[in-house]
Amino acid sequence: MKNQIVAIICFCTLNACSQINLGKIQEASDKAQGVIFGKNTTSVAELNNAEIIDGLKEALIKGAEKSVSLASVEDGFYKNPKIRIPFPEDAQKVKETAINLGFSPQLEKFEETLNRAAEKATKKATAIFVHAIRGMTVEDGANILKGADNAATNYLKTKTKAQLTLEFAPIVDQAIDAVELTKYWEPLMNKYNTATMFTGGEEINTDLNAYITERTIQGLFVHVEAEEKLIREDPVARVTDLLKKVFGSLDP
Fold first, then answer.
1. Burial of 39 by CB count in 10 Å (0-12 exposed, 13-18 middle, 19+ buried)?
2. Angle CA 90–95–97, to nearest 5
3. How far is residue 235's CA from residue 65's CA, in Å, rounded to a whole number?
């Protein structure tokens, strides 16, 4: 009888130990999958406000820095078809006339100058982005995390566009002046606009600075949005534990 009792106790002890070990093995397996595949069983509800805000700030800063680095290098605008600044859309008739008159090389140089101005101006964006990101509130963070794929980009655009315009404008002016672009542009456009009084056509906005500045900001946010979408959708892009935890909470 004693031997039977001892056997039962041994069996129960071994079974309990096995269950504990299996539990630890499963836990280790889950953690490994989270690291390798970016899986995260944390739900949005389990994240505290500090984690949400810190994770979003980290993601936005990384995305903003990469976006600026891509756009601000030589040919960052000029040879990128997604953000290249073209001849002003409302002046296409002028462009067509110039091409017919054999001025294609001059037009190409004109467009290159527009894009070089954008590349130079974009270098100023990082500090403006970081300042806006650091001012993010808890409410901002919750809305962004649960928002659309471009929710963070829209937040950043709202918070920084006015400052970006202010900082970019003088840089664009310098780039335009360096090649005396307005000396050729404005007289041509003014003559065209005068002619529209008789032809009934639409006048063209001759403000090159406003055009280049606006298109520069648009192009920059194309990159920012792409980076945000990448972090939201691709676990490999979540390069820190905090990003894995915060954005992994959104994974199906």
1. middle
2. 120
3. 19
Radius of gyration of the chain (CA): 29
* CA 128 to chain CA centroid, nearest Å: 14
Residues 149-203: pLDDT tens digits? 889 899 999 999 999 999 999 988 888 787 666 666 666 666 666 766 655 566 6
CA 221 to chain centre: 5
**125: enclosing H helix or E strand:** helix 125-134
Going from the C-alpha of 22 to that of each of 15, 30, 40, the distances in angstroms are: 10, 12, 21
Residue 87: which of 96, 75, 100, 79 has the closest Cα?
Answer: 96
User: Running DSSP on this structure, what letter comes out for residue 87?
Assistant: S
